[in-house]
Automatic annotation (TrEMBL):
Organism this protein belongs to: Actinophytocola gossypii
Name used for this protein in its record: FAD binding domain-containing protein
One Pfam family hit: FAD_binding_5
Residue ranges occupied by any FAD-binding PCMH-type domain in the UniProt entry: 1-169
Keyword presence, Phosphoprotein: no
Keywords, ordered alphabetically: FAD, Flavoprotein, Oxidoreductase
SMART domains associated with the record: CO_deh_flav_C (SM01092)
The keyword Flavoprotein appears for this protein: yes
PROSITE patterns named in the record: FAD_PCMH
Length: 286
């Protein structure tokens, strides 16, 4: 197996163009599992660990441009104020060792419906920046996932960054698993309120062939939330319940070893209701 080690983004893109079958490796926390279990035996690995352009983040026009290999630990430590939903999700990924290595580029590259970065990226309306020697393009996150473990990336492209809007209101992330850490989500939910535009964003994980938005729930909450009276007690039980039911209805879960479809729908309704309450408490506390 060849091990390709570019030292710049330009070199990484040249190597990917010349070796479209080469498997990119960032933190390696998905790739190495597949190699160790002999599920994949690629002719070449393309190591992204020495590409400095992928390893930084910066603020840019009201968004954070988060490099593909910035590890979850840095997202937690450095971006909790501006990207609170993504930082909450990052905090739940694996263990400290996994969070030190892995990042959002690898989560997107794997395109698992259970990836924890996906719900907050959907809820905030992020864009994925991808590049090849042919140029750079941005893919709205809702168009990035094509099916379980399939994405809009072409064979010669790499994820270079995600462009995530700076939070304009409270955000939440919640996940159900069989234990509290080191666990693949049975289902997960991300929520982003924008108190300026008075909009609500959602993202559902691990309850469909791809991560999903709950558009009807977003429209309903944006319409009925009492934006002019943001006190904790102005969010009624009926509103929270209806929001939860609309989120559950948007899911397309299956029965599998981690949970039944019916359980996933039930749990999502609970997560959506709870996160809306927590977020609304934050609005009233501002
Ligand atoms: C013990 C353990 C616990 C875990 N817990 C969680 C969890 O709680 N939540 C969760 O979401 N995930 C979890 N994972 C899975 C994994 O850590 C995440 O998916 C992580 O985000 C992968 O990032 P990475 O940098 O390690 O990716 P890698 O393993 O390096 O790559 C993953 C995939 O993405 C591709 N890729 C990587 N970078 C790029 C790029 N820039 N452009 C294009 N393709 C790219 C690779 O070719 C590969 O197909 C866990 C894994 C382990 C081993």
């Amino acid at each position: 197996m060849d091990f390709l080690r570019p030292a710049s983004l330009a070199e990484a893109l040249e190597l990917k163009a010349a070796n479209p079958d080469a498997v990119p490796i960032a933190g390696g926390t998905d790739v190495m599992v597949e190699l160790n279990f002999d599920k994949r035996r690629p002719a070449a690995l393309l190591d992204l660990g020495r590409v400095p352009e992928l390893a930084t983040w910066r603020a840019e026009n009201g968004r954070v441009r988060l490099g593909a290999t910035v590890p979850y630990t840095r997202i937690v430590d450095e971006l909790g104020d501006v990207l609170p939903g993504l930082a909450m999700a990052a905090r739940t990924v694996g263990s400290p060792q996994i969070r030190n290595r892995a990042g959002v580029g690898g989560n997107l590259g794997s395109a698992s419906p259970a990836g924890d970065a996906h719900p907050p990226l959907l809820a905030t309306g992020a864009d994925v920046e991808v590049a090849s020697t042919r140029g750079t393009r941005t893919v709205p996150i809702g168009e990035f996932f094509l099916g379980p473990k399939r994405s809009a990336l072409a064979a010669d492209e790499l994820v270079t960054a995600v462009l995530v809007p700076v939070a304009a209101g409270p955000q939440q992330f919640a996940k159900v698993g069989t234990r509290n850490a080191m666990v693949i989500a049975v289902c997960s939910f991300g929520l982003a309120l924008d108190t300026t535009r008075r909009t609500v964003g959602t993202g559902i994980g691990s309850a469909g062939p791809v991560p999903l938005r709950a558009a009807a729930a977003e429209d309903f909450a944006a319409e009925v939330l009492p934006w002019d009276e943001p006190a904790a007690n102005t969010l009624t039980d009926d509103t929270a319940k209806e929001f939860g039911e609309l989120v559950a209805a948007a899911a397309r879960p299956i029965d599998d070893v981690r949970g039944s479809a019916a359980y996933r729908r039930h749990a999502l309704a609970v997560l959506a209701r709870r996160t809306l309450r927590w977020a609304w408490q934050d609005v009233s506390g501002r």
